[in-house]
Amino acid sequence: MANPWVEPLQGCSRWAMTLKNSLRERSVALGMTRLVYRTSLAGGMCLTMALAMQPSGTVAGPSSDGCAIKSQVLSWSMDRIRANPSARARQLSCKEIATIQAVNPESLEVTTGRVSGKPVICMSSSRSIPCLFILADLSEDGDPTSVLAEIFNYKQNTTVLNETVERLFIRPAKYIK
Questions:
Q1: I need a surface site. Which of 17, 117, 120, 125 has the fewest CB within 10 A?
Q2: Domain extents for the chain?
Q3: Is the Cβ–Cβ distance between 42 and 49 less than 8 Å?
Q4: Could you give the CA distance from residue 89 to residue 94 in angstroms, rounded to a whole number?
Q5: Distances from the Cα of 34 to the Cαs of 19, 25, 37, 49, 56, in angstroms?
Q6: What's 76-133 look like in SS3?
Q7: Taking CA 137 as the corner, what is the angle to CA 118 and CA 172, rounded to the nearest 5 degrees?
């Protein structure tokens, strides 16, 4: 008599291998080298979890955990932020750095947002999720949009007055020479 668990587990293993291959391709794109998985059959459901991802190594540039910033856009943006007294640059994790560096630098934009009611400078490649990565905290005295414009030396058009303020998006790649 056949074991009723063998076929579902084999199906689970095939499904898990497809998922693992997909995750492996994504991890390479993000500069990760190690993925640890657990696959099991629980209550008739196939469960696969990526338990650990480790960065592939370090390169030159500062971050909180020894990873480096290779992206000229990210490095230049962080240098501009650190040079401004109204902004306090945050330390980015290796995962954040790797994710940002995997994005086309021409599509990265910097804008302002709020986290827990406090103004921040954010970076993203999508205007629909403008604060994907938080680069800095801003002092609460002052207009965040004006501070952002000052940091990146962006000249605002002040001849038009609107009752609502449109969010300012700056593409650092356009300013790097």
A1: 117
A2: 6-55, 72-174
A3: no
A4: 16
A5: 15, 11, 10, 14, 8
A6: HHHHHHHCCCCEEECCCCHHHHHHHHCCCHHHCEEEEEEECCEEEEEEECCCCCCCCE
A7: 120
Question: pTM surpassing 0.90?
Answer: no
pLDDT digits (tens, 9 = 90+) for 91-138: 999 999 999 999 999 999 999 999 999 999 999 999 999 999 999 999
Report the alpha-carbon angle 143-121-90, nearest 5: 125
d(CA 9, CA 174): 53
Sign of CA dihedral 149, 152, 153, 157: negative
Q: What gap in Å lies between CA 112 and CA 131, rounded to an integer?
A: 8
Q: What are phi and psi of 168, to 5 degrees?
A: -90, 125
Would you say 119 and 137 are in contact if contact means Cβ atoms under 8 Å apart? Answer: yes
Task: In whole angstroms, give the CA distance from residue 38 to residue 72.
Answer: 37
